[in-house]
From TrEMBL, chain A:
UniProt xrefs under InterPro entries: Ariadne (IPR045840), ARIH1-like_UBL (IPR048962), E3_UB_ligase_RBR (IPR031127), IBR_dom (IPR002867), TRIAD_supradom (IPR044066), Znf_C3HC4_RING-type (IPR018957), Znf_RING (IPR001841), Znf_RING/FYVE/PHD (IPR013083)
Keyword vocabulary terms for this entry: Metal-binding, Repeat, Transferase, Ubl conjugation pathway, Zinc, Zinc-finger
SMART domains linked: IBR, RING
EC number: 2.3.2.31
GO biological process, alphabetically ordered: protein ubiquitination
PANTHER family: RBR FAMILY RING FINGER AND IBR DOMAIN-CONTAINING (PTHR11685)
Species, as recorded: Gomphillus americanus
Protein's UniProt name: RBR-type E3 ubiquitin transferase
One GO MF term attached to the UniProt entry: ubiquitin protein ligase activity
TrEMBL record, chain B:
Protein name: UBC core domain-containing protein
UBC core domain residues: 5-164
Keywords for this protein: Ubl conjugation pathway
Statement: the UniProt record of this protein carries the keyword Glycoprotein: no
One Pfam assignment: UQ_con
Domain of life: Eukaryota
UniProt xrefs under InterPro entries: Ub_conjugating_enzyme, UBC, UBQ-conjugating_enzyme/RWD
């Protein structure tokens, strides 16, 4: 798929790593043009206005980034790498702040993180005559004890248990403090590796990596379960009213870099947050909509939705209607089509408070209904993914097409998913959109994409016997659908970037 | 079920607590190594809120105590069940919910130190009461008490101010 290839080409390999030392400066420069559009990279000149630059980082690259920064700081400060690492982690990888604090008062900073002058010492245990450990409240002269620079001494067993619990149960790593209450001394990685068992060391490394990514504003973990990749992207919090930074991980999971939610183009992060909250608050009002069954508007027999397509035909009376608006399907796709647009009633109709609140509920239900329907279709189509494979095999056997030749079905299934997801979020976007001249353009784009998607969906759900003859049709529809999606996303993103949309709610 | 580590530590604490000389702290029961009851009093006889009152603390220990914090809360008790024939209520305090759950950073996993023990925690709670003159419950007490189903340890309190 075209769009995907472009995403992946943006996820360049490790070539940029040599420049990591300048990364801070680069980000600042990019801030001025929001980190999108003007791109020096020739490969990316075809980048669309809704796409952002990003890079996928694997565990070794994340490690390498840290090592480079640690070495850099160690060289500048003349400190051993372990000390530089502690300092960087302590100040959340903010190099400028670290240098400032270091120049200001070296001794107090080193003291604060438990380094003092001789950071190169090797940790060792000690036996103390008549020792009593405050954690286990026991001890004697034979027991091995350990203390950080603060001098708070405990038996090695207790220390080890304490650290193991912090790492295993609390998921802490870079900023574990001395067990003494109120002592802010941080357990340095040397002491830690000296004390904890081997099986916890890898977990510790993992957690240290976690905190690195968490501490960096330009890095985010891919939210897919068990995924080990992080994404680097220069879009910052303050840019989120102007761009929706969708990124795609190496694991193929597309998500929003701004809020880690699923890809929610074209709707800005703050709006989807408000929308999801609203839907939760009003879940009872809207509950019936998400049901998989409805009644045929003509004969009232129960109809179950089992695919993504919203063009329904009642089995009993053959009535054709739209699942979303329950209106006649024959009116869809003609100039009468207004399934996506909410018709505001004239001011006179809504004079009293009750009428106003009824109208605002109707308006919400209009958008929620369509949002929920695309969401549902999307889920049904995802469930059907396994069925698509079966369909492909079946088609292969029936038509004598090769495996390559039946790939168009998978392509169509993917396009359908992408379009449904986009359509779903266009309704959240439209709900918050205040009317202006550009709203019509948005609704037209939305209508075109919706119709194209429904058409593709309907073709896709045809019986296998008819599919081989329809291959070209499906491929054409598929291309058209993708194009409609690109147009909608580009147009909407362009205006968002230029601050041309007005919303009936604030964007923060 | 207290583990070997917790048992050993509690067995060390018990005699010290039974012989404690800290005023206003009294061990009520420690029949096993899982749950202890402590009565505390604020020693300020002119205190507008707590003078003359006795409050009951319930400590529950996991097998990982003292590496893991104990679960500590105030509990109610009828007069008949108490050694002084006086009932125990939940003290009024901006960080104590009316169901006895306490919002105190030292009992939270991030603020807990394994050097703390039953007596030191009791003393901290004693002074938390002594320093308070506000006759009020935490914000959102009603909703919290009605909806909370978590064990006190698992409640994620945000510590808004230092004296929390
Ligand atoms: Zn010990
Ligand atoms: Zn210490
Ligand atoms: Zn991923
Ligand atoms: Zn987002």
């Amino acid at each position: 798929m075209d769009s995907e290839d472009e995403f992946m080409s943006g996820a360049s390999s490790g070539d940029d790593f040599a420049n990591i030392e300048d990364s801070d400066d680069d980000f600042d420069n990019e801030d001025q043009d929001l980190g999108f559009s003007q791109d020096k990279d020739i490969v990316r000149t075809s980048k669309k206005s809704y796409e952002v630059d990003f890079e996928v980082l694997g565990p070794s690259q994340i490690q390498l980034q840290q090592d480079v920064q640690i070495k850099d700081v160690a060289d500048v400060l003349g400190q051993p790498p372990e000390a530089a690492a502690i300092l960087l982690r302590h100040l959340r990888w903010n190099r400028e702040k670290l240098f400032d604090r270091y120049m200001e008062n070296q001794a107090s900073l080193l003291d604060e993180v438990g380094l003092e002058e001789d950071a190169s010492h090797t940790p060792s245990t000690k036996k103390i005559p008549d020792f009593e450990c405050e954690i286990c409240m026991s001890g004697d002269s034979d027991v091995e004890t350990y203390a950080l620079k603060c001098g708070h001494r405990y038996c090695v067993d207790c220390y080890t248990q304490y650290l193991a619990s912090k790492i295993r149960d609390d998921g802490e790593a870079a900023r574990i403090q001395c067990p003494t209450s109120g002592c802010k001394r941080i357990v340095d990685s040397k002491s830690l590796t000296f004390l904890v068992e081997d099986n916890l060391k890898s977990r510790y490394r993992e957690l240290i990596n976690r905190t690195y990514v968490d501490d960096m504003e330009n890095l985010k973990w891919c939210p897919a379960p068990e995924c080990i990749y992080a994404i680097s992207c220069s879009v910052r919090k303050k840019d989120l009213a102007k761009i929706v930074p969708t990124v795609t991980c190496e694991c193929k999971h597309p998500f929003c870099f701004g809020c880690a939610h699923e890809d929610h183009q074209p709707c800005p992060c703050s709006l989807i947050k408000k929308w999801i909250q609203k839907c939760e608050d009003d879940s009872e009002t809207a509950h019936w909509i998400s049901a998989n069954t409805k009644e045929c508007p003509k004969c009232q027999s129960t109809i179950e939705k089992n695919g993504g397509c919203n063009h329904m035909t009642c089995r009993k009376c053959k009535h054709e209607f739209c699942w979303m608006c329950m209106g006649l399907w024959s009116e869809h796709g003609t100039s009468w089509y207004n399934c996506n647009r909410f018709e505001e009633k004239s001011g006179n109709d809504a004079r009293d408070a009750q009428a106003k609140s009824r109208q605002s509920l109707e308006r919400y239900l209009h958008y929620y209904n369509r949002y929920a329907n695309h969401d549902q279709s999307n889920r049904l189509e995802k469930d059907n993914f396994a069925k698509t494979e079966k369909k492909m095999t079946l088609l292969q056997n029936q038509s004598g097409m090769s495996w390559i030749e039946v790939q168009f079905l998978e392509t169509a299934a993917k396009t359908l998913q992408e379009c449904r997801q986009t359509l779903k979020w266009t309704y959240a976007f439209a709900f918050y959109l205040a009317r202006n001249n550009d709203t019509i353009m948005f609704e037209d784009n939305q209508k075109d994409l919706e119709l194209a998607t429904e058409n593709l969906s309907e073709m896709f759900e045809q019986p296998v016997e008819q599919l081989s003859a329809k291959k070209l049709d499906i491929l054409n529809k598929n291309t058209y659908c993708s194009q409609r999606r690109v147009t909608l996303l580009s147009d909407t993103a362009e205006l968002l970037k230029r601050g041309k949309w007005t919303f009936n709610i604030s964007l923060d | 079920m207290a583990g070997a580590f917790a048992s050993r530590r509690l067995q060390r604490e018990l005699p010290k607590l039974q012989a404690t000389t800290s005023p206003g702290i009294k061990l009520v029961s420690a029949t096993d190594l899982q749950e202890w009851l402590i009565d505390i009093q604020v020693m300020d006889s002119a205190h507008p809120l707590y003078a003359g009152q006795t409050y009951r603390l319930r400590f529950r220990f996991s097998g990982k105590y003292p590496i893991e914090a104990p679960e500590v809360m105030f509990i109610r008790a009828t007069a008949a069940s108490c050694w002084d024939q006086k009932p125990r209520s939940i003290p009024m305090h901006p960080h104590i919910y009316s169901n006895g759950i306490i919002c105190l950073d030292l009992l939270d996993k991030a603020g807990w130190s394994p050097v703390q023990n039953v007596e030191s925690v009791s003393m901290s709670l004693q002074s938390m009461l002594a320093g308070n003159y506000k006759n009020e419950r935490p914000e959102g007490d009603e909703v919290f008490v009605r909806t909370n189903t978590q064990r006190p340890r698992d409640v994620n309190f945000e510590f808004h101010d230092d004296d929390c």
